Amino acid sequence: MTLSISLTVNGLARSITLDDPRVTLLDLLRERLDLTGAKKGCDRGQCGACTILVNGRRINACLALALSYDGADILTIEGVAQGDELHPVQSAFIDHDALQCGFCTPGQIMSVIGLLREAQTGNDPERIREAMSGNLCRCGAYIGITEAVLDAQNRMADAEGHR
Amino acid sequence: MNHFEYAKPTTIAEAIKLGQASGAAFLAGGTNLLDLMKGGVTHPGSLIDIAHLPGLDIIETLGDGSVRIGALVRNADLAHDPDFAKKFPAIAEALLSGASAQLRNVATVGGNLLQRTRCAYFYDLASACNKRAPGAGCDARGGENRGHAVLGWSEACIATNPSDFCVPLAALDAVVEIDGPAGRRDIPFEQFHQLPGTTPERETALAPGELIIAVRLPATAAEFAAHARYVKLRERTSYAFAVVSAVAALRFDGPTIGEARLALGSVAAKPWRAHAAEAVLVGGKPSADNFRRAAEAALADAKPSGANEAKIELARRILVRACTLAALGTPERIPALPASPFATPAGAIIHD
Ligand SMILES: Cc1cc2nc3c(=O)[nH]c(=O)nc-3n(C[C@H](O)[C@H](O)[C@H](O)COP(=O)(O)OP(=O)(O)OC[C@H]3O[C@@H](n4cnc5c(N)ncnc54)[C@H](O)[C@@H]3O)c2cc1C
Ligand code: SF4
Ligand code: FES
Ligand code: FES
């Protein structure tokens, strides 16, 4: 059985032929499109390391059957910087030491970008922590992550204000 | 994961037709189904992808004032719909206390209702489990079972239904709309999930090939909006299944309770409506004593299925907490930690 789908991945249109229906978006990205930014932590929806944006919403790529996402617009960590200019969330993670080993970081950053689009937390650290609970960090960088979210949110609001 | 055929029907009729094949399973968000397939716990021969069926992702108010939620509405979209959350704040709070933001963005209404009643031994292929392999026995009975059922369990199975969403749906008399090979029908929510008895592999009243189309809430369910809370005890603050949970929805006639809706979660194989406890509250004041008496009534038939006697008292206390918070009034906004027993109610109370 061959099955084909088309996706937009980080702005590029891709036509993909799958020889196996079992492929998840995570395996498709990592093993067939050489985009290894999204990580496979648990492969079962329990850690958030595989978080990507699909049509602007954060999801766990490990529990997404690729075939079911025909036509989707996908954004991964590889697609968030503008050339050499980091995304404000990436810069904020660096500035606030929001990582240690870095394994969870691509998922954390994509989750934060999704969180900011959802616009539910405001600048309440408790709401931010709750909204980020789907991303585990084994190094315990949580304090820095919350600071980075607050800071990135301010920076993005400022940038918006200067337009 | 086993190999499977994949089909993507474009109409409900086509989906129902394909769903009748033996070994077929409907795929919605996939967050429970794919998880079980990865674990080798279930192995459908074909996946019928219903995620893109048209017209099932709508929340609408019908002529009689009831609210109809399409089966493909995502859990996050339902919880964040301002009109819906205003009418049914305990449902929104329950949804937001479940899983994670990523999972809620994908999980559907129909899939949430049909996530498996399960336990760790069900997931562990090396363990005996009557639900996974009927007749095999149940390793939970002599195993780690402090989280298992205290109500409605059977010798065959002591697993609990973990859905948060379903707890307020049971309390508020929701109706499940079904379409299938034999046509359309409605199932009252309380009859939708079934107790294990001798057939724990059968969890709901759905017949093979039947599709959930929508969930309906009667217009009267919105009368509890000013006093409705969900409380969920977890082993960590967030992103965890309930140890026990409870919903309380009250309607006041002056200073007394005119009508009460109570249900418990994660205590049985189905969301547990507590009718006897509701009767205790009606006509009385919202006092700590009355709430405790109601909780005693709710758990009157409870018995441990293993080393889980503590759950019975936990369930009573969580129900008292839910009643107490509901009586104080629904907060203007869902608390930062939805359904958390740690959230303080001070400050954000409105009475209207
Ligand atoms: C890590 C993790 C944590 C979680 N924590 C919680 C929690 O705290 N609280 C909670 O309540 N839930 C929790 N969940 C469960 C989650 O809510 C469910 O997985 C989700 O709601 C299932 O929805 P879905 O659309 O992805 O269903 P799917 O996985 O697509 O389907 C689930 C089942 O329903 C059937 N189905 C789906 N839609 C229909 C339909 N319309 N008609 C007929 N059959 C249908 C499928 O065939 C399948 O059997 C958690 C899940 C994970 C992975
Ligand atoms: S409690 Fe039920 S699901 Fe768990 S092992 Fe026993 S039969 Fe299986
Ligand atoms: S790898 Fe997807 S949630 Fe852990
Ligand atoms: S930085 Fe190491 S797991 Fe988060």
Concise synopsis of the structure shown:
Chain A is α+β, with helices and mostly antiparallel strands.
Features:
heterodimer, A: alpha+beta, Ubiquitin-like (UB roll), DNA polymerase, domain 1, 2 domains, five-stranded mixed β-sheet, 5 helices, 5 strands, B: 352 residues, Uridine Diphospho-n-acetylenolpyruvylglucosamine Reductase, domain 2, Enolase-like, domain 1, four-stranded antiparallel β-sheet, 13 helices, disordered C terminus, binds iron/sulfur cluster, binds FE2/S2 (inorganic) cluster
How does this model look, in words?
The complex is a heterodimer of chains A (163) and B (352). With 163 residues, chain A is of the alpha+beta class. Chain A has two domains: 3-79, Ubiquitin-like (UB roll); 88-161, [2Fe-2S]-binding domain (DNA polymerase, domain 1, Orthogonal Bundle). Chain A is built from five helices and five strands. Chain A has helices at 25-32, 88-95, 105-118, 125-131, 142-161, and strands at 3-9, 12-18, 51-54, 57-60, 73-75. In chain A, strand 1 (3-9) and strand 2 (12-18) form a beta hairpin. In chain A, helix 2 (88-95) crosses helix 5 (142-161). Chain A is globular, with a radius of gyration of 16 Å. The model of chain A has no long low-confidence stretch (mean pLDDT 96). Chain B is α+β, with helices and mostly antiparallel strands. Among the domains of chain B are: 1-52, Uridine Diphospho-n-acetylenolpyruvylglucosamine Reductase, domain 2; 226-328, CO dehydrogenase flavoprotein, C-terminal domain (Enolase-like, domain 1). Chain B has helices spanning 12-19, 33-38, 75-79, 82-87, 89-96, 101-106, 109-114, 120-123, 166-171, 189-192, 275-281, 288-298, 310-328; strands at residues 5-7, 24-27, 46-49, 59-61, 67-70, 175-179, 185-188, 211-217, 228-233, 244-253, 256-265, 272-273. In chain B, the strands form three sheets. In chain B, strands 4-5-8-6-7 form a five-stranded antiparallel sheet. A four-stranded antiparallel sheet of chain B has the order 9-10-11-12. In chain B, helix 11 packs antiparallel against helix 12 and helix 12 packs across helix 13. Chain B is globular and about 60 Å long. The N and C termini of chain B lie far apart (52 Å). The chains are: A alpha+beta (163), B alpha+beta (352). The interface between A and B is medium-sized, with 36 and 33 residues. Residues 40-43, 45-50, 60, 62 of chain A line the site of one FE2/S2 (inorganic) cluster.
